[in-house]
Amino acid sequence: MIKTLVSPCSVYGFGSQKLKFDRSCKKVKPRAVRMELTITQPDDWHLHLRDNDLLQAVVPHSASTFKRAIVMPNLKPPVTTTAAAITYRESIMKALPSGTSFDPLMTLYLTDKTQPDEIKLARESGVVYAVKLYPAGATTNSQDGVTDLFGKCLPVLEEMVKQNMPLLVHGEVTDPSIDVFDREKIFIETVLQPLIQRLPQLKVVMEHITTMDAVNFVESCKEGSVGATVTPQHLLLNRNALFQGGLQPHNYCLPVLKREIHREAIVKAVTSGSKKFFLGTDSAPHERTRKETSCGCAGIYSAPVALSLYAKVFDEAGALDKLEAFTSFNGPDFYGLPRNSSKITLKKSPWKVPDVFSFSFGEIVPMFAGETLQWQPLN
Fold it and tell me: CA dihedral in degrees (60, 66, 68, 71; nearest 10)?
């Protein structure tokens, strides 16, 4: 629901220029207008919560906005078993602020040694909702990932089909001879397309898509079998953001930002109303000194600003009427889960993103730090 409060003799075109007149119909200087947007409370279908002090610090930001989240398993050591996933979930629940209803949906970290029986245990647990594929060496804490998907993991993938357990894919090849900006495209051609052809009943989420190639691939697949999560950074930033005004470590993530033509293709896809794309922040916190260093970590911390940024994208595209489906409907529909019954309201009122969040162990710099955003969730 979109609510606009206007003054007498005001005329508004949605997404167009505002014209104002006084009671004699003479044009007058526009006055401030309040706009509110109420939507079904969203879920985050790709979230990094980390553990220990970092978990304690960041989980309130996600819990204040999102009802549920698919929690990534790339800890040290990784969450490779159902028992470990249950233990990790208990840690998350203990770290939540009192009174919150946030529900972490757990995942398993796929390795060359994962067994089909573990998938059965995961399904029976009631807390594990997916399995994550990290090609070994592709991103943060992925050194224990898969080295040979078809040679070593096929029985597990076949069991996932039987259990209707989605595979969440970090879609990049890790061959050092492949240009970093081409790794998603090559992964689609050499891994993802053959995988879908071999196991057409396997539900697959291509995570944090970054290219026109990924958009085209997802759109070519059967609805309900292949979907994609989309981050705020890949909707709002292109690779120039890594270098403008000097090297920008807080805009560095994996998959890395791409050319403007790819960003535009992703925006067009998510604002089109397609059911195949849904919210997944890939919010990935690192302490400031681990980003601002000679060999900085990949990851953008977007949890505190994510919903505001998604609203910005849809507002600028003239597609606010499609925001709710992207944030709140497409994800649960793909996973076969009920949509949330709770609501959240965003108010169009300028606010400044904090420069940093300070904790006992250090600082975390959020996405769009120090910048002014127009939409703000009302908690």
Answer: -60
Q: Which of 236, 314, 345, 376 is nearest to 15 (CA)?
A: 314
From the list 20, 61, 208, 262, the catalytic residue is: 208
* d(C-alpha 131, C-alpha 108), whole Å: 5
Does residue 20 carry a catalytic annotation?
A: no
Round to whole Å and give the CA distance between 379 and 377.
6
- Indicate which residue of 20, 170, 262, 312 is catalytic: 170
d(CA 221, CA 227): 8
Sheet of 2-5: strands edge to edge? 2-5, 34-40, 343-352, 372-378
Interatomic CA distance for residues 155 and 360, integer angstroms? 45
Is the N-terminal amide bond of 166 cis, ω within 30° of 0? no
Q: Given a cut of 60, is residue 276 above it in pLDDT?
A: yes
Whether 250 is catalytic: no
Q: What is the mean pLDDT of residues 256-270?
A: 98
Tell me if residue 61 is catalytic: no
Question: Tell me, what amino acid is at 277?
Answer: F
* Residue tagged active-site, from 20, 48, 291, 348: 48
| pLDDT (tens digit per residue) in 312-339 | 999 999 999 999 999 999 999 999 999 9
Write down how long the chain is: 379
CB 131 within 8 A of CB 166: yes
Q: 37, 349, 2, 27: which is closest to 10 by C-alpha? A: 27
- Residue 234 among the catalytic residues: no
